[in-house]
Amino acid sequence: QNIFAFTIMSMVTSLTFAVANASKRVFIILCSLLVMGNPVTAVNIAGMMLAIFGMLAYNKVLFYFFKPFS
After folding, report:
1. 29 CA to centre of own chain
2. Which of 1, 12, 13, 65 has a 20 to 30 A CA-CA distance from 39?
3. pLDDT tens digits, one per residue of 15-50
4. What is the CA radius of gyration of the chain?
5. Phi and psi at residue 23, in whole multiples of 5°?
6. Quick one: 20 exposed, middle or buried, by C-beta within 10 A (0-12, 13-18, 19+)?
7. How many C-beta atoms surround the C-beta of residue 66 within 10 A?
8. How many C-beta neighbours within 10 Å does residue 55 have?
9. In this structure, are residues 19 and 26 in contact, taking their beta carbons and an 8 Å threshold?
10. 47-52-58 Cα angle (round to 5)
């Protein structure tokens, strides 16, 4: 796992890696909610929505500023 993380870090910026890591955490939390039936509070939902919104905003800004020239 560490070798994979270092390989990815060498290919992308540190901010992109941080966003990918956050998305991985959201995915793991969602899977644990579905598979294990963990209880969910309003604060949990708000935190997941904030993380998802942040990932979407980052991708939109990244695409806007670095879109390929046609």
Report:
1. 12
2. 1
3. 778 878 878 888 888 888 889 988 888 998 898 889
4. 15
5. -65, -35
6. middle
7. 7
8. 15
9. no
10. 125
